[in-house]
Every structure is written in structure tokens, then in C-alpha cells.
Design goal:
The chain has a six-stranded parallel beta sheet with strand order 3-4-2-1-5-6, with helices on both faces. It has 251 residues and is α/β, with parallel strands linked by helices. Helix 4 packs parallel to helix 5. Strand 3, helix 5 and strand 4 form a beta-alpha-beta unit. The chain has a single domain, classed as 3-Layer(aba) Sandwich (Undecaprenyl pyrophosphate synthetase), CATH 3.40.1180. It is built from eight helices and six strands; from the N terminus they run E-H-H-H-E-H-E-H-E-H-H-E-E-H. The chain binds 3-methylbut-3-enyl trihydrogen diphosphate (IPE) (2 copies) and magnesium ion. The site of one 3-methylbut-3-enyl trihydrogen diphosphate has 11 residues, from strand 2. The site of one 3-methylbut-3-enyl trihydrogen diphosphate has 10 residues, from helix 1.
């Protein structure tokens, strides 16, 4: 199945208000596998199958940015075998999907560092980014070897290196020095597998994000459930610290 062949959502299904940027903490691959008597690695492989459907919905519904949390700076604490398998799975996904992503207008961006990453995988990540850099339809941020605290620390170092006067530093200076520079902050952060934490994800950018959590493990998150999250988002009342918008006259 190619991206263009993913199931087309019913257009009446499409909410009026959609997030510009959706970020997903794809959690629960290990528990999904354990429940089936499979290895954790099989869970991680299964967790790549539904990504296409999620990207397809983002393309259909004109979402600008989709961020997927693939590997955190803390995930180095896992057994070496699991880390190697995760790296090999990501390399396979890049080999398999980059041409199609380029064809349908997706721009891949990498959030994170390639330090310590095996050279063959680092090359593939750089290739996916370079091969899709002229695309504008959807930015697909792959948060890989990503940690928000390291990202903020890196931003501080870059700002200090520029020799800016402290009085000249504002919130935009910080935002412009994060991996997500130039992109809107996430409006919606989805987390699967029942956990209610950010796990060092987009700490600065998430200041006013809406959260949507489900007990469903990541490999079981279908495009239908993803669209439900987007519809739920469209009914949220965002205030950004202000007062609720007045109800329309006559209601
Ligand atoms: C998410 O699934 C994938 C990564 C963190 C790389 P987990 O591997 O965290 O799955 P659980 O949380 O153990 O079920
Ligand atoms: C967060 O999941 C990281 C990714 C999804 C890549 P974790 O499974 O690593 O998070 P914790 O350890 O449960 O907080
Ligand atoms: Mg987990």
C-alpha cells in the first residue's frame, strides 16, 4: 500500500478547526508485543506499520507539521540489543519510505542529535532530510535521539556563542534556536499506552498544547482513532490564559 492509497477519510468527517502541528509520543510497543507473546523488537516493527495511515490523514486534512517521537535521549538506557534493533528498524523505514514521502510532498526534518548514532543510520537520516528538503506539503519531524532538555541547553549555548546582549534575548530567540525553528508550536500532543507524562518531549514548545491520551498501544492506533483525536481537539476551548470566547449571539 502506498501513501496515496491509504483509506480516504469521509470529507464530512473533517473538523473545521484542525491543529497546525500534531506531535505524537508513540508508546506501548513493548506492552503490545508482551500481550501477544512476541518480543519487544516485534512490537517496534509493528509500530512502524500504522505510521503511513497517520501521515495519510495529515496529508488529507492539510496538517502542516507532524512530529513523531521515535527515540529519546533516555532510551539509551535500554539493553544494547533493543537499541540496535530500533536503529535497524528506523534504517529500514527510511530505505523503504523516503522515495514515496518525497513523491507526495512530505519534508522530513530530524529533531535531535546524530552523535553516537551508527554512521550508516546517521547517513540515512541525512539522506532522508536532504532528499525531501524542497517539499512543503507536510513537515514530518522525526524526533530521534531527541531530548527537550538537551535541545534547550543547545539553544542556550548557541545564543551565548552569538554574543547577544542579555537584554536582546527574548522568547523568539529561544524558539529560533530549537530544532523546530520556524515551525508553529504543537497544538495537539497525543500519547498512546496510557501514560500521562511528557518524557522530555518538546518541553518549551508544548507550553499551550492540548493533550490527548489513550490506553491503546501505539501499534493499535488506527487512522480512525487518530481522526477521533483530531475531532476531539476541534471541540476543545483554548484560552491561552485569556477569557473564553463569548458564545455566538442567539445561543
Ligand atoms: C515506544 O514503545 C517506543 C520507544 C520508546 C522507542 P516502548 O518500547 O516504550 O513500549 P513500552 O512502553 O515498553 O510498552
Ligand atoms: C517516550 O517513551 C519516548 C518515545 C516514545 C520515543 P518511553 O517509553 O521511553 O517513556 P517513559 O520511559 O515511559 O517515560
Ligand atoms: Mg514506553
Amino acid at each position: 500500500m502506498t501513501l496515496s492509497e491509504t483509506e480516504q477519510p469521509d470529507s464530512t468527517d473533517r473538523p473545521w478547526v484542525l491543529p497546525r502541528h500534531v506531535a505524537i509520543i508513540m508508546d506501548g510497543n513493548g506492552r503490545w508485543a508482551a500481550e501477544r507473546g512476541l518480543s519487544r523488537v516485534e512490537g517496534h516493527r509493528a509500530g512502524t506499520e500504522n505510521v503511513r495511515g497517520v501521515i495519510g490523514t495529515c496529508l488529507d486534512w492539510d496538517i502542516e507539521v507532524l512530529t513523531l517521537y521515535a527515540f529519546s535521549t533516555e532510551n539509551w538506557l535500554r539493553p544494547r540489543d533493543e537499541i540496535n534493533s530500533l536503529f535497524s528498524i528506523l534504517g529500514d523505514v527510511i530505505d523503504r519510505e523516503t522515495d514515496e514521502l518525497r513523491r507526495v510532498g512530505v519534508r522530513v526534518r530530524h529533531l535531535g542529535s546524530l552523535d553516537g548514532v551508527p554512521e550508516s543510520l546517521a547517513d540515512r537520516v541525512r539522506y532522508a532530510v536532504a532528499a525531501t528538503r524542497d517539499n512543503h506539503r507536510l513537515s514530518l519531524n522525526v524526533a530521534f535521539n531527541y531530548g527537550a532538555r538537551v535541545e534547550i541547553l543547545r539553544a542556550v549555548r548557541r545564543i551565548v556563542n552569538c554574543g547577544l546582549n542579555p537584554a536582546e534575548i527574548d522568547e523568539a530567540t529561544i524558539s529560533d534556536n530549537l530544532y523546530t525553528a520556524g515551525q508553529p508550536d504543537p497544538d495537539l500532543i497525543i500519547r498512546t499506552a496510557g501514560e500521562m507524562r511528557l518524557s522530555n518531549f518538546l518541553l518549551w514548545q508544548a507550553a499551550y498544547a492540548e493533550y490527548w491520551c489513550t490506553e491503546v498501544y501505539w501499534p493499535d492506533l488506527t487512522p480512525e482513532l487518530f481522526r477521533r483525536a483530531l475531532r476531539d481537539f476541534s471541540r476543545r476551548q483554548r484560552r491561552f490564559g485569556g477569557l473564553p470566547a463569548p458564545a455566538p449571539a442567539g445561543t
